[in-house]
Structures are given as C-alpha cells and as structure tokens.
Fold this protein.
Amino acid sequence: MTNNLKATKRETKTKGQLNTLRSKGLIPAILYGGKSPNLKLSINEKFVNDVLRSENFLSTVIDLDIDGKKEKVIPRDVTYHVTSEKPTHIDFMRIVQGSKIILEIPVKFKNNDQCSGLKKGGVLNIVRRKIELKCEAGNIPEDIEVDLAGLDIGTSIRISSVTLPKNAELTITDRDFVVATIAAPTIVKEPEKPAEEATAEGEEGQEAATAEGAETPAPGKEGEAAKKDDKGKEAPGDKKQAADKKTSEKK
C-alpha cells in the first residue's frame, strides 16, 4: 500500500520556531537514511491526518513529494502532544532498494464465517495484533493473514501454522509463540445465596404470612360478651323489690 504526501523543506532551528510552525497547522518532520543527507521537513497536518489514523501507518510505503522531488519513504516514529494528542513530529526513513528493514506488520484474520469454533459460540482471543518481521525495503507486506477456516474451540494458533508474506522472516525465532486462540464461550452464573441467609429469608416469610393470616376479634363477639356479663349481675332495682317482698311475708 502506497500513499502520496507533500512536504516542504524547513529551516527552523529553535523550539520557538517549531511552535510557530505547529500553530500554522504544520507538522515538523525529518527524513534520514541512505547516502543522501538528512532533510528537515514540514507537512500540512490536514493532509496527513487520514494516513496517521491507519492501523498500519508505520509499515506503509509513502511517496513523499518534497518540493517537486519524489522519494519513497516509510514512517519510523510519530510523536504526539501529551494533552491534545495531536502529532508534533514525524520521522521518515528513505527506502533503499535491496536493503532490509524490521517492521511490525498488522495481523488480519480471515474466513471467520468458516470457523467451526466461532459458529459454536466460541470467542477469538487475539494475543498479537502485530508481528515483527524483517522485510525487503521495496516489498513491504500490508498485513499477515491468519486463516480461521475449520478451526474448533480450544485451538491455539501458533506462528508456525501461519503463512508469512514472501521475502519476509520473523525476528523472534527462539519460540513458537501464540498469535490467537479460540476459547469456549463464557457463561456467567449467578452466585448461590449462603445457607444462613436463605434460612433467615424463609423464616421472615413465614412470620409475615402468619401475621397476615391472624384473626382479629369481631365487634359482635365483644358485644355478646358484654351482654353475658350483664346477665350474671343483678340490677339495683331488683335488689330493692326482693327486700320488700321478704318484709311483707313476715307481717
């Protein structure tokens, strides 16, 4: 993948001059490598923003147009502002035909729809999103493809099973590292309540049910009880009549 980018030479020497350059929407840059001398450059921020957002920016070959003269270069480093996160400086390196360069190449996964493990609900866990390769400067791959077709749950995809781009070799050669795995789906189970808590809740429920079902005395029963008490007691008038009756009998 090759992008076109325009740049102009700059003659800034102090930090203040660099800040003035940035305030005008320009990014300071430097071009080095090969037998040609280093060049101080400035690039319009609005022209480079789209390229910077690319995941493989640092492995993208760029046709850099420097005041009308084109050179094939590759970005080697980007410095960003701490708070604004805007690019403040870019390093470019000339591509010299026949030479080799070490780059981090993005990993791309293909045939997800043909992966048995993913169809069963498995999850693709990506361990390495980029892999460092030693490539020919004039033939830099865009990505490293990993084929998921036919892979099942529990599979670990190691670098030995990955087909590398032509004319590229690994920089890590002492181990067969894992690139990704296909893991079983994770099911979140609700934790069981402790036995003591469950018992306490059950007892509370029983007490509430008992309280709700308890009978309250009806007003009628209370009235009947009152009448019963009245029958068991003699009224004051009845006592007087009984005394008069006894007096007449004696006479």
Remarks:
- Confidence is low (pLDDT under 50) at residues 216-235.
- The longest helix spans residues 195-213.
- The chain has six helices and 13 strands.
- Helices lie at 15-23, 45-52, 116-119, 195-213, 219-232, 236-250.
